[in-house]
Amino acid sequence: MTDASAQPGPEPANAPGPGLREPGSDEPSLDGAGLGGTPPSEAALAEAGLRLDVDGAVATVTLDRPERRNAMTFAMWRGLAAIGRSLPDAVRVVVLKGAGPSFSAGIDLTQFSENGFPDGADTEATDRFIAELQDAYTWLRRPEIVTIAAVHGHAIGGGFQLALACDLRVIADDTAFCMKEPALGLVPDLTGTKPLVEAVGLPRALELCLTARTVHAEEAARLGLAETLVPRGALDGAVADLVAALLAVDAGAAVATKRLLRQATANTLEQQCAAERREQIGRFRALFAAR
């Protein structure tokens, strides 16, 4: 979760407050949005600091609080989860990006207000609370879509983890990643630990988290935190080229291949061979049925 508000830097370690906060009158209600395929309204997303643009097979999700460097709120997380639940079936590629100077500075520090965060005393309630936030991230790994993080500027804490939740990362040369949570006495809890370890290995992941240091663009690409590094002015073009290349591949084959690759690290060789056979049988059936 972490934030650097307007200027990334040291933050209070005593931030978590007691109790759990429900959406207030000043926060858009997105709890039911997206259920059953009903998309959240444009107004509700805007109030949550989000923008969704769907153009055929491509959905672009923009974190749209540039005046706060796209610092994340509970409403924004609920909005992201609602987008994931209601994404049209025709969408094959999702691009996440940030408006203004940063991808995301992490959690908005105003969320660390009284009754903003659980104190952990109620284990089940706290577990549900964190799981709800994680819903904003987990849908990005679905095999039906390929997700791209188009990153520029700061991507801190929850923002860094949002980029890690995506399948691919295209970053600008002004990108600065930071996993700030341990410096605040917290842990990264927005699904980021697994992809971080998978990308850079356990020793480097430990070093990055436990020092909470900033990783700039060139090092990030070298460590495997990005597939493509481009000048800031070339970011949109590089993302567009990648989207076009992804859409040129057969949709069914893309889904089956992502499903295979996602399970590969957890499978034994025998299990993965069996999974490959199952997926290929499905592809044979689909191809011959189309004749």
Structure description:
The chain has 291 residues and is an alpha/beta fold. 40% of the residues lie in helices and 14% in strands. The protein has 10 helices and 9 strands. The protein has helices at residues 42-47, 74-86, 123-138, 158-165, 193-200, 202-211, 217-223, 235-247, 251-264, 269-289; strands spanning 50-55, 58-63, 93-98, 146-151, 154-156, 168-172, 176-178, 215-216, 228-230. The strands form 2 sheets. Strands 1-2-3-4-6-9 form a 6-stranded mixed sheet, sandwiched between helices. It has a 3-stranded mixed sheet with strand order 5-7-8. β2 (58-63), α2 (74-86) and β3 (93-98) form a beta-alpha-beta unit. The chain is globular, with a radius of gyration of 19 Å.
Distance between the termini: 50 Å
Number of strands: 9
- Output the helix-strand order: HEEHEHEEHEEHHEHEHHH
Number of discrete helical segments: 10
Q: How is the main sheet built?
A: 6 strands, mixed
| Rounded average pLDDT | 89
Structural class: alpha/beta
Overall body shape: globular
**Can you list the strand order of the major beta sheet?**
1-2-3-4-6-9
Estimate the helix proportion, in percent.
25-40%
Low-confidence parts lasting 5 or more residues at pLDDT below 50?
A: 4-26, 31-36
Q: Radius of gyration, rounded?
A: 19 Å
Give the amount of beta strand, in percent.
5-15%
